[in-house]
Amino acid sequence: MATMDAPASDRNKGPIFEQLQQNNLFLDSNASPINTLEVAAGAGVHSVFLTDSLKTAGFNLSSWLPTDPDELSRASIDARVAESTDAVKQIVAPALPLTLGPKGAKEAIWRAEPLSDKTFDLIYNVNMIHISPWSATAGLMEFSGAKLNEGGALVIYGPFVVDGEIVQSNVEFDESLRARNSAWRIRNLEDVAAKAEAKGLSLSTVIDMPANNKLVVFKRSQK
Fold first, then answer.
1. Which of 58, 121, 143, 160 could cross-link with 189 by S-S, CB 3.0 to 4.6 Å?
2. Closest C-alpha among 78, 81, 21, 9 to residue 55
3. In sequence order, which ranges of 27-182 are alpha helices (DSSP H)?
4. Residue 16 lies in a domain
5. What is the CATH number of the domain that holds 183?
6. With 70 as the cut, is the pLDDT of residue 65 above it?
7. Owning domain of residue 165
8. pLDDT number for residue 29
């Protein structure tokens, strides 16, 4: 299986890594081993690039589990990992199916060991919530609230409406999304944050990114 092309992922992988590295957005390099799950990993560009880059930067990245509901995407992820370095191959696991609904993951595998609750330190999700129904966002928060360790982070990247403000290019993008699928749209950050808060995830950081996107970090509360 050949790897799939993902131009947007190739464009945004570098800026996202820079922010993760510079701002210590989830855990620092001296922390306990970081177990990561990537939701909607697509072609696998970020799975390989961030694993390699974060490890090289000194982060104690022990595992990276890519997921996607699409079988062809999962095949692309695995093919991309197979073409990568030995270090990446040791960290990135074979891609698993993960389909999000309002109650979290639909697949039974996520309700069994070793993937049961409080398994991950970082959940990473790029460019999903605007090209999926709201139930997927609700499911992401339900899933993350259950699967993140205390103090763990959910990192989301994409376009958002913030305090009712949206740039003209994103207005046009939003119109095109709705024309393609009536359930798609650029989400209000306040709505996303409220859904997260209800699942024990507090809004921690919002960073402006290129092309009018944002990097948003939620932290799971520590008891």
1. 160
2. 21
3. 45-56, 71-82, 86-91, 134-147, 168-180
4. no
5. 3.40.50.150
6. yes
7. 32-220
8. 46
Please state, in angstroms and rounded to a whole number, the distance separating the CA atoms of residues 150 and 213.
Answer: 28
- Answer whether residue 175 is part of any domain: yes
Cα(141)–Cα(197) distance, integer angstroms: 9
CA atoms within 13 A on the CB side of 82: 12
Rounded distance between C-alpha atoms, residue 44 and residue 68, angstroms: 10
At 223, list the tokens. Answer: 């008891």
The C-alpha R_g of the chain, in whole angstroms, comes to 16
Q: What are the pLDDT digits (tens) for 19-60?
A: 998 876 666 444 578 999 999 999 999 999 999 999 998 888
Mean pLDDT across 178-197: 98
**Tokens standing for residue 109:** 């595998």
Concatenated DSSP letters of 167-192: -HHHHHHHHHHHHH-TT--PEEHHHH
pLDDT range class, residue 5, cuts 50, 70, 90: confident
Q: How many CA atoms lie within 13 A of 22 on its CB side?
A: 7
